[in-house]
Amino acid sequence: MGAKKITIDVEGSKPISVRPKDVTLLHPGPVTSLGQLQPPDGDVMTAWELLAGETTTLAELSELAYGDFTPQTAWAIWEMVADGLYFSGTPDEVAVHTAVSVASTQADRAAKAAEEQAWQDFLDRVNRNELEEADGRFLQDVVAVAHRQQKQSKLLQALNQSESEENAHKLLLRLGYWDEWHNPYPQRAGITMSQPSADLPPLPDETRRDLTHLPAFAIDDAGSTDPDDAISWENTCTERSR
Predict the structure, then answer these.
(1) Which residue, of 17, 62, 159, 169, is most buried by count of CB atoms within 10 Å of its CB?
(2) pLDDT for residue 2
(3) How many domains does the chain have?
(4) Distances (CA, A) of 101 to 80, 88, 104
């Protein structure tokens, strides 16, 4: 049999049992409750600046940032390691990120937060039956469902609506993204609505007769010079008309 499992008491819930290999030892203790793990005053940012680009340990980083390695300081540093902005790794090998890496991560997180806020603002507008010009990008999965090009829609899920072609069509009409003249059936049938593009072979080298001297008659504007359907005739030497 394998090693015995470790029982962890969870405040407000039942104890849970985990395998020893799923537990990371941060400090030998003693500590009896996470409520005791309030970090003392320290200077983590200075420690980060001093070690940027290097690798250290949880104990060394705690001592540099807080002047001591205790359960409280170990937990405080580990929370930052788990966050991944300034540090990452394991207790025995903590990577200290460079300023460039930190700035890049901060920019990515800011962009993600802005996108999440934009999505929430969009949902609020949808619930008010309103749309902004830039909202079309959030509706493309609904369009794809309405055109039978995919089966799932993030927006329909968020609205707790069935992801059916009919519901997608109704939503696009309700929001005014489509009007009643939009016909989704060609796309549902896989019919291409754009002009086909194909390479044409070169014209064969044929003997051509010059008929530009013949009068031609067509119903068109007087100033039109575009080729069009017209009628003309020519008397041949046998007096037959062409």
Answers:
(1) 62
(2) 52
(3) 2
(4) 15, 12, 5
Q: Is residue 234 a part of any domain in this protein?
A: no
Extended beta strands in the chain, E state: 6-8, 16-18, 55-56, 87-90, 93-96
pTM above 0.85, yes or no: no
pLDDT digits (tens, 9 = 90+) for 154-166: 999 999 999 999 9
* 12 shares its domain with 92: yes
- Enclosing domain of residue 53: 6-26+38-97
Coil, strand, or helix at residue 154?
helix
Q: In 120-154, which positions are buried (b, 16+ CB within 10 angstroms) versus exposed (e)? A: eebeeebeeeebeeebeebbebbbbbbbeeeeebe
Q: Is pLDDT at 141 greater than 80 in this prediction?
A: yes
Three-class DSSP category at 231: strand
The pLDDT of residue 242: 46
What's the maximum distance between 2 C-alpha atoms anywhere in the chain? 120
Is residue 202, in this structure, part of any structural domain at all? no
